[in-house]
Amino acid sequence: MTDQNLAKDLLQYTEWSGSRADLLALIERLEKAEPRARMLQSKKAPYALLPINARRIQWFITKGMMPKPLGHKYGYMHLVYYWASIVARKREKLPFDQIQGLSNAINLDIAQNYIGKNSALLGLMKANEANEQNYSDAPFQEQSKMLQSLGREEGRPLRSELLRFAITPWCHVTINKNQKCRIDPASIDILTKAFKNSLEQILEENANG
Fold first, then answer.
1. C-alpha to C-alpha distance for 63 and 99, rounded to whole angstroms
2. Looking only at Cα atoms, what is the longest distance across the chain?
3. For labelling alongside 83, which of 44, 63, 107, 149 has CA 20 to 30 A away?
4. Is the peptide bond before 46 cis (omega within 30 degrees of 0)?
5. How far apart are CA 189 and CA 201, in angstroms?
6. Paired residues of 41 in beta bridges
7. pLDDT tens digits along 58-108
8. What is the CA 202 to chain-centroid distance, rounded?
9. What is the C-alpha to C-alpha distance for residues 18 and 21, in angstroms, rounded to an integer?
10. Which pLDDT score, from 0 to 100, does residue 1 have?
11. How many other β-carbons are positioned within 10 Å of the β-carbon of residue 103?
12. What is the b/e burial string over 82-95, where b = at least 16 CB atoms within 10 angstroms of the residue's CB?
């Protein structure tokens, strides 16, 4: 399976978002680029190729191999976790019941790298599980409680990639890259109003000395 080609193709869609129908159409297009390498295949002769369908998407979400949509929106992370699941099945011959909960077991960066590299998915999942366990054991329990008191519900630091918009040399706005598919016309309106209100508060504070 030419996973490196797939990994490169996916990088074209880091800014992509759409409906479930759009997601199906995109996956279908990517499958057709290398059908035998990218499509699932029947276990019995004549080993027919099994293209993407809506039922598979729902099943992957139900089993936690893909994250749930953000409202009705899908984005790059859904593509990555879908293909990580497919690669695990085709390259490593893993049954899907061994990778249930994949989207919660490894972060987006790890899933993305897994697709293009000859690494063992179960090893990645176990390593992440061990890391999670470390934060539930002493001496991390106290640290976890402190982080939770500061609003970090997970009780541990999370890695994230940020998109930073340098609007002016002195005004920068950042967005969590993994959550960019949340952006739609309604959220843009809400965010801009909230930002405007915050700036007006600063202006009022400056005026009051």
1. 9
2. 80
3. 44
4. yes
5. 19
6. 49
7. 999 999 999 999 888 999 999 999 999 999 999 999 999 999 999 988 888
8. 35
9. 8
10. 46
11. 25
12. bbbbbbbbbbeebe
- pLDDT tens sequence across 118-151: 788 888 887 766 555 554 555 666 776 777 677 6
pTM exceeding 0.85: no
> Which one-letter amino acid corresponds to residue 180?
K
Tokens describing residue 27: 């996956």
Nearest Cα to 58, choosing from 40, 30, 78? 78
Residue found by looking up tokens 């040399």 in the block: 169
Q: Please report, as a single letter, which amino acid is at residue 84.
A: A
In the beta sheet, which residues pair with residue 49?
Answer: 41
- The position carrying tokens 């978002």 is 17
As given in the structure block, the two tokens for residue 63 are: 């089993």
Q: What pLDDT, in 10s, does the model give residues 22-61?
A: 999 999 999 999 999 999 999 888 889 999 999 999 999 9
SS3 labels along the chain: CCHHHHHHHHHHHCCCEECHHHHHHHHHHHHHHCHHHHCEECCCCCCCEECCCHHHHHHHHHCCCCCCCECCEEEHHHHHHHHHHHHHHHHCCCCHHHCCCHHHHCCHHHHHHHHHCCCCHHHHHHHHHHHHHHCCCCCHHHHHHHHHHCCCCCCCCCCCCEEEEEEECCEEEEEEHHHHHHCCHHHHHHHHHHHHHHHHHHHHHHHCC
